[in-house]
Design goal:
heterodimer, A: 284 residues, alpha/beta, Rossmann fold, 2 domains, seven-stranded mixed sheet, three-stranded antiparallel sheet, 33% helix, globular, disordered N terminus, disordered C terminus, B: 271 residues, mainly alpha, 85% helix
């Protein structure tokens, strides 16, 4: 967004290398309050590195990351719940780090747990006693109870079945409907990105950069399955995207496939996207 | 801590009740002993009742049992405490550094591979017949076990816990108390129990060869007098103390501390 919102995450000219191997180059992106940005790409396309840089888990060496959000939370690929703490204590972990008194943080954690569909029995149990889906809910509650402005998602739902994944998506969208929560998510699941995100950035190449951008103007809550399938198919019809995922030669491109989509030149990470129907316009 | 103590006290009756199977199995062993004793005669193997009687005599009249047990346990626990303290601290410290852990691993292998009896010979030359010899032998037998446990605990502290601590901005005391300590303890506690068992065995061996008092010395004396009943009574005392320690103290504490590990057990407890 050219008119800078109050809080935003701005990444400019970001480069990262592991030893002599450059994995990210010329990455530009901007995420403003309440928006959802999805980075999709094949495994090893540097998207996880980008997220870890944004989370401060890796040190930025070249380029800039400006995180203007007051509170950032993150969901890891696995739930990573502390096995020696009950679900409730796990949810309250971040609040404890803020030195909130026990009674207060437990009641806040309980409320958030209930909102995530965890009853008191589940909250009293240890992570090993919970199913995978329940563990994901605890992990989501642990992040959301901090009332973050920015949530970083490191493919947290990739191990869940389609039903559980849908439940987690609905919980996340409900939270976004409640208050402005910006989400930066990475995933290798194009459909998941199309389900949740306002903008989908496709990352590929060595070193990796943003190769394609898709802006979706329809609010995530109003997206039907059919709409999602169609948009996913359109995205996957793009030669650049197919090449990124190493898919076989593209089927005959449909004439309307490019309407909501705009290519990024492979050498530059920055371009202006043609305006979609309702005027959601962003630079990337 | 208070809740731990309460859980321990409340848990004891149910825990003892669950021990009937173990007791039945042990009684079967006593029956076998009785059969063997009847076959070979009291000179080779006194029967369980005679042994129990001797043990009772040692425990009440004259009172050789309790002073000897006190001396022996003092030595075992001093050696064990030193080994647990030094082994835990140094092991965890070594595990934190890659270089230190690579360097100390062969040392641990050498120490673990050296039989305690070899150390005992050295200790007898260095420390004579006082407390020094058994304490040193216990220490040197237990130290590498505990050290290896601490090393393992610190080395296996996975990157994702560090990331978690970072993302949730955990202050240093929470990193220690909520993440590092429970993780390391889950490695240390089992080796402490192993160390306790070997401390108790090694101290008796050390005393047998080097001391004038304690359970080991009493065993040596009964061997010299060919008093089989007394020898068996002393052995029984040693085993009973170990069993009591393990099943009345350590096992319940371990269950409470590691409830998270065994989901099935915790479910049964909740029911």
């Amino acid at each position: 967004m050219t008119t800078a919102a109050a809080a935003a995450l701005r990444v400019s000219q970001l480069e990262h290398a592991y030893g002599p191997r450059t994995v990210l180059e010329g990455v530009e992106l901007q995420l403003s309050a309440g928006r959802t940005l999805a980075l999709v790409g094949p495994s090893g396309s540097g998207k996880s590195t980008l997220l870890h840089l944004c989370a401060g888990l890796l040190t930025v060496r070249r380029g800039r990351i400006d995180n203007g959000f007051a509170r950032t939370a993150m969901l890891f690929q696995q739930p990573h719940l502390l096995p020696w703490k009950t679900a409730l204590a796990n949810v309250a972990l971040g609040l404890k780090a803020r030195a909130m008194p026990r009674a207060q943080r437990e009641s806040a954690a309980r409320t958030m747990g209930h909102a995530m569909g965890l009853d008191d029995v589940a909250l009293a149990q240890f992570p090993a006693q919970l199913s995978g889906g329940m563990q994901s809910r605890v992990a989501l509650a642990r992040a959301l109870v901090l009332e973050p402005d920015l949530l970083l998602l490191d493919e947290p739902f990739s191990a869940l079945d389609i039903g559980l994944k849908g439940q987690m998506h609905r919980l996340l969208l409900a939270e976004q409907a409640r208050r402005p929560l910006a989400v930066l998510m990475i995933t290798h699941d194009v459909m998941e990105a199309v389900t949740l995100a306002d903008s989908v950035l496709v990352m590929a190449g060595t070193p990796a950069g943003v190769r394609w951008r898709l802006d979706l103007s329809l609010p995530a809550a109003e997206r039907s399955d059919e709409w999602i399938y169609r948009q996913t198919a359109r995205l996957l019809a793009q030669p650049v995207v197919r090449a990124a995922f190493d898919l076989p030669a593209p089927p005959a491109a449909r004439a309307d496939a490019t309407r909501a989509l705009a290519p990024l030149p492979p050498d530059a990470g920055q371009t202006v996207v043609p305006e979609p129907a309702d005027g959601a316009r962003e630079r990337c | 801590m208070a809740s731990l103590l309460r859980a321990w006290l409340v848990g004891i009756p149910r825990y003892l009740w669950s021990g009937w199977g173990a007791i039945a199995s042990l009684l079967l062993m006593v029956a076998l002993w009785e059969a063997l004793a009847a076959h070979y005669g009291p000179l080779v193997l006194p029967d369980p009742l005679a042994t129990a009687h001797t043990l009772e005599q040692l425990g009440t009249r004259g009172g050789a049992l309790w002073p000897a047990l006190a001396v022996t346990s003092r030595r075992a626990f001093v050696g064990l405490a030193l080994a647990v303290l030094a082994g835990s601290v140094l092991g965890v410290a070594a595990g934190v550094s890659m270089t230190a852990s690579m360097m100390s691993r062969p040392w641990v292998t050498v120490l673990l591979g050296t039989p305690p009896i070899a150390w005992l010979v050295l200790a007898m030359l260095w420390f004579g017949t006082g407390d020094g010899t058994p304490v040193f032998t216990v220490f040197i037998a237990c130290f590498p076990v505990v050290f290896a446990g601490g090393l393992q605990g610190a080395r296996t502290l996975e990157q994702h816990w560090r990331d978690l601590a970072r993302v949730f901005a955990l202050p240093w005391h929470m990193r220690g108390a909520d993440i590092y300590l429970p993780h390391v303890l889950s490695y240390l506690f089992p080796v402490w129990i192993v160390a306790l068992g070997s401390a108790w065995k090694v101290v008796v061996m050390a005393e047998l060869l080097s001391s004038d008092d304690g359970v080991g010395a009493a065993l040596a004396a009964s061997r010299a007098q060919l008093d089989m009943a007394a020898a068996l009574a002393w052995i029984g005392a040693v085993v009973l103390v170990l069993l009591a320690l393990e099943y009345l103290l350590l096992e319940p504490v371990k269950r409470e501390l590691e409830r998270w590990r065994d989901a099935q057990g915790a479910r049964a407890e909740a029911a």
